[in-house]
């Protein structure tokens, strides 16, 4: 059943009760919890919609549906297409609206209630997240969640939220809100997990040796593909100087250091 069919079932006795029904339905639908309701004045101001007519199929019909003045009698397939366009239009306008004073205020309230979820990182102690886009271009990247405490991005837990286009929030909103409300900026997380074995810290030198060995093997494989004589011994393949720079004989007979070799 399409959204328009649901709307027909909703029709009330007064026009005032029906005024913002599509937006109410959209915001209350499962999977749309990240969105805030856009003010009708903002939606009806053509300046705020500049350029969107080329981005949305059946733009005028979609706008009529979002603003609840849609009265076209059409087939179900057409209605479904217009409904899809209306959701896309709402998302594009939403990205513009949430960086306005009114939009920031609404998103702030949702942020305080942790409507966008909490950071999964243990050291962040369930700090609330903010939705963000990795691109401002639609259909490029899905929405991510940003934690201001560890300054990292995460995937939404729900598959419904993970399918939301990141362009509906934009790549700047999560930074702008902290510029407008600097008191919200949390203290940065300085806690880091320390690997231990039976209560003792893992020796840093051992980790370094493992990292160097991995990089050395990667470099050897790369040089083999390029058919470059590395100068390694056939036995353990660990020939090199004491500082970790791997050398091989150059064209003039002098040792040449391979670029990118790990240095302690």
How would you explain this protein's 3D organization?
It is a single chain. Mean pLDDT is 81; it is low at 1-19 and 235-264. The chain has a three-stranded antiparallel β-sheet with strand order 1-2-3, with no helix packed on it. With 264 residues, it is mainly alpha-helical. It is built from ten helices and seven strands. The radius of gyration is 28 Å and the shape is elongated. 38% of the residues lie in helices and 8% in strands. It has three domains: 1-97, Orthogonal Bundle (protein kinase ck2 holoenzyme, chain C, domain 1), CATH 1.10.1820.10; 114-193, N-terminal domain of TfIIb (Single Sheet); 196-257, no CATH class. β6 (247-249) and β7 (255-257) form a beta hairpin. α5 packs across α6 (76-97). It comes from Emericellopsis atlantica. It holds the Pfam family CK_II_beta. Belongs to the casein kinase 2 subunit beta family. This is Casein kinase II subunit beta.
């Amino acid at each position: 059943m399409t959204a328009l069919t649901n709307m027909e079932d909703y029709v009330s006795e007064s026009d005032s009760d029906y005024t913002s029904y599509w937006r109410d339905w959209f915001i209350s639908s499962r999977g749309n919890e990240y969105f805030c309701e856009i003010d009708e004045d903002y939606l009806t101001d053509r300046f705020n919609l500049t350029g969107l007519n080329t981005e949305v199929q059946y733009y005028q019909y979609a706008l009529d549906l979002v603003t609840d003045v849609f009265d076209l009698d059409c087939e179900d397939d057409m209605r479904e297409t217009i409904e899809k366009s209306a959701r896309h239009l709402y998302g594009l306008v939403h990205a513009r609206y949430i960086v306005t004073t009114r939009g920031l205020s609404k998103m702030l309230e949702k942020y305080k209630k942790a409507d966008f979820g909490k950071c999964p990182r243990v050291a962040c102690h369930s700090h609330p997240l903010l939705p963000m886009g990795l691109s401002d271009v639609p259909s490029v990247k899905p929405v991510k969640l940003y934690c201001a405490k560890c300054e990292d991005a995460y995937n939404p837990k729900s598959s419904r939220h993970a399918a939301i286009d990141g362009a509906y929030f934009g790549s700047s909103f999560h930074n702008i809100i902290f510029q407008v409300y600097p008191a919200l900026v949390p203290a940065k997380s300085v806690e880091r997990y320390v690997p231990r074995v039976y209560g003792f810290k893992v020796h840093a030198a051992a980790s370094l040796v493992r990292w160097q060995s991995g990089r050395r093997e990667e470099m050897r494989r790369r040089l083999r593909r390029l058919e470059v004589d590395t100068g390694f011994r056939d036995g353990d393949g660990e020939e090199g100087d004491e500082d970790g720079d791997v050398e091989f004989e150059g064209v003039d007979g002098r040792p040449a250091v391979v670029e990118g070799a790990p240095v302690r």
